[in-house]
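Running this now, will post back.
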Amino acid sequence: MLKIKIHEALSEALQQKHQKLNTILRDASEGKSNDAKSSAGDKHEVGVAMVQLEQEKLGKQVQIIEEQLTTLNRIDSTKKHLKVSLGSLVKCENQWYYFSIGHGLLQVDDQAVFCLNPQAPLGTALLGKSEKDEVSFQGRKMVIQSIF
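Update: finished.
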């Protein structure tokens, strides 16, 4: 089923991003410790401080991805939904939405799917709706064709 493939592709994309950020964070940490052994002075201290700020920023990004993975792991991608909720795959006209985490566009089997956080403005508009319900969003009317 498409929903299971979407869920797996999203999970894999997050895991790859998590690995990449951890590698960058580790490399930055090694660079900082190497800088600590080099010459002293104001330039050195500024450089170390900049590396430390970058590490903090990367650490926050890693934390966000870990929270997204936790949310994603709680979703049962095999469950059929009658109303739009977390874990729903929704088709509105020519667009698919997967209610999970805010990830944006994902290509799965030549199908474009928006991975959408239920708290996002569009997510809030669709949340709790059923098939054939009409929703207005940003001046545009959308009809929910299917919910999986």
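The longest strand covers residues 140-147. More later if anyone needs it.
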